UniProtKB/TrEMBL annotation:
Cofactor(s) in the UniProt record: Zn(2+)
Organism this protein belongs to: Winogradskya humida
Family statement: Belongs to the metallo-dependent hydrolases superfamily. Adenosine and AMP deaminases family.
Identification of the protein by name: Adenosine deaminase
Record lineage: Bacteria, Bacillati, Actinomycetota, Actinomycetes, Micromonosporales
Classification via Pfam families: A_deaminase
InterPro entries the UniProt entry points to: A_deaminase_dom, Ado/ade_deaminase, Metal_Hydrolase
This protein's UniProt keywords: Hydrolase, Metal-binding, Zinc
Domain Adenosine deaminase: 11-317
Length: 327
């Protein structure tokens, strides 16, 4: 069985981690203290309670409150540096980090400043730790097609170095993925990879829509695919990986318990899967802990864990220097 040390030593990639959702608790309480009245606790114990989510909608409200604390390019750069240090400690060599430009524009950070702060942060992380960071610009569906258009404008006019993907997050219920078809087509035409969330809290129909309407090349979560053999076949045939974040799914109530998570079944179906962390401190996890929980609670074999790590490295979109693991 792989020890914790073995899991740390395994070169890993996190292909689904949100920048704001990666903020360490001490960073969040520090930001909250600078912005009293924003509704986010300034004390670590209260923050832990604040992160006890009743359901997915409650999680999104909390996420929005924390996002609103990020007000300056310096805040962005601090988040990147914190994430880089956390990843490095866990043996994560590469991450594709989701950033939601509309959230930061509304808070007063211009897209050009955002891109500069991300670039400066990534350079410092690379120099200090060797961890390589790339970016996914995503739309929250709560910002609608107008938000999608301004996200595309930010991506095209002010791309940070290492921008590789275009995503769609936020609420899923009642959101027609086809409303975002044109903006995803334009993003793909500009060379960005399509990586929408889908099938996290809804059914396989949304995953089909992500594939057909948005040209998805990887799917954020996509756990609903477990119920649709034809969809699994399609994902296998087109090599579309699911970014599986088990602790996230339990914390938001998408899955009743870790022991009931569909990851083992998805692996045996042969569908491409990568293991990811989503919003790790908010969900009381880290990428390393996802590997540990997959080993201890889901009883994945050493072979499965090694294959998952290799799939993570292989499924990234960066053209930069990555270790040859699993290539
Ligand atoms: N934004 C941050 N985390 C998210 C998640 N798990 N699903 C949808 N949108 C998100
Ligand atoms: Zn996510």
């Amino acid at each position: 069985m792989l020890s914790d040390e073995d899991l740390i030593a395994l070169p890993k990639a996190d292909l689904h981690v949100h920048l704001v959702g990666s903020a360490a608790p001490h960073t969040v309480v520090g930001l909250a203290a600078r912005h009293p009245g924003a509704g986010v606790p300034t004390d670590l114990r209260q923050l832990a309670d604040f992160y006890a989510f009743r359901d997915f909608a409650h999680f999104l409200r909390v996420y929005t409150a924390v996002s609103a604390l990020v007000r300056t390019p310096q805040d962005i750069e601090a988040l990147v540096l914190g994430l880089g240090a956390d990843l490095s400690e866990q043996g994560v060599v590469y991450a594709e980090v989701t950033v939601t430009p509309v959230t930061h524009t509304v808070a007063g950070i211009h897209p050009a400043e955002l891109a500069e702060a991300l670039g400066a942060g990534a350079r410092a992380v690379r120099a200090g730790t060797g961890v390589e960071l790339a970016w996914v610009y995503d739309i929250s569906s709560s910002d609608g097609p107008a938000g999608a258009q301004s996200t595309l404008d930010a991506a095209l006019r002010h791309p940070p170095p290492g921008l590789v993907g275009f995503g769609l997050g936020g609420p899923e219920q009642g959101v027609r993925r086809s409303d975002y078809r044109d903006v995803f087509a334009a993003a793909r035409a500009a060379g960005l990879h399509s990586v929408p969330h889908a099938g996290e809290t809804t059914g396989p129909g949304e995953v089909w829509a992500a594939v057909r309407d948005l040209g998805a090349e990887r799917i954020g979560h996509g756990i609903a695919a477990a119920h649709d053999p034809l969809l699994l076949e399609h994902l296998i045939e087109h090599n579309i990986a699911l970014e599986i974040c088990p602790s996230s799914n339990v914390a938001t109530g998408a899955v009743p318990s870790l022991a009931e998570h569909p990851l083992p079944g998805l692996l045996s179906s042969g569908v491409p899967v990568v293991l990811a962390s989503d919003d790790p401190p908010m969900f009381g996890t880290s990428l390393l802990q996802e590997y540990q929980r997959a080993r201890d609670t889901l009883h994945l074999s050493s072979r499965d864990l090694i294959d998952l790590a290799a799939a993570g490295i292989r499924s990234g979109f960066s053209t930069g220097n990555l270790p040859a693991v699993g290539k």
